[in-house]
């Protein structure tokens, strides 16, 4: 069973940066379209950024130009560099496959941005 372990969150002031990491167990990580998602209090989980097996990326409009997703297929890892953070980015961040068939969600990593 695939396990997802997210890390790198924290409490930061608006305008600062954080880099999130996600390690995925399993031996076929490189073929999966991976994404980062987030869930703010009282809201549904939403897509933030995705990266295909070949490295093509796409982003939620509100993070375009501020967030960068990347992956390391050798290390079974996906990353999210978040610059110019805003209070509205506050949420628990998760990684998972992009598409209708998701793996079991990990515990996520909390990102809190103060104004």
Tell me the β content.
over 45%
- The rounded distance between the terminal residues' Cα atoms is 40 Å
Number of strands: 10
How would the global form be characterised? Answer: globular
Give, in order, the helices and strands: EEEEEEEEEE
- Helicity level: under 10%
Helical run tally = 0
| C-alpha-based Rg, rounded | 13 Å
The main pleated sheet reads as: 6 strands, mixed
Low-pLDDT sequence parts = none
The largest beta-sheet arranges its strands as: 2-10-9-4-5-6
Summary, kept brief:
By secondary structure, the chain is mainly beta. It has strands at 4-7, 10-13, 18-24, 34-39, 46-51, 57-59, 67-72, 77-82, 91-97, 109-114.
Describe the structure.
- With 115 residues, the chain is an all-beta fold.
- 0% of the residues lie in helices and 48% in strands.
- It is built from no helices and 10 strands.
- The protein has strands spanning 4-7, 10-13, 18-24, 34-39, 46-51, 57-59, 67-72, 77-82, 91-97, 109-114.
- Strands 2-10-9-4-5-6 form a 6-stranded mixed β-sheet, with no helix packed on it. A 4-stranded antiparallel β-sheet has the order 1-3-8-7, with no helix packed on it.
- The radius of gyration is 13 Å and the shape is globular.
- The mean pLDDT is 96.
């Amino acid at each position: 069973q695939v396990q997802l372990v997210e890390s790198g969150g924290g409490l930061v002031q608006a305008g600062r940066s954080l880099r999130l990491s996600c390690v995925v167990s399993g031996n076929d990580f490189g073929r999966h379209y991976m994404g980062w998602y987030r869930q703010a209090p009282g809201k549904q989980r939403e897509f933030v950024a995705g990266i295909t097996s070949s490295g093509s990326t796409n982003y939620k409009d509100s993070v375009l130009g501020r967030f960068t997703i990347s992956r390391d297929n050798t290390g079974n890892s996906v990353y999210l560099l978040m610059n110019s953070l805003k209070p509205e980015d506050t949420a628990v961040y998760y990684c998972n496959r992009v598409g209708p068939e998701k793996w079991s969600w990990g515990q996520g990593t909390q990102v809190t941005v103060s104004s």
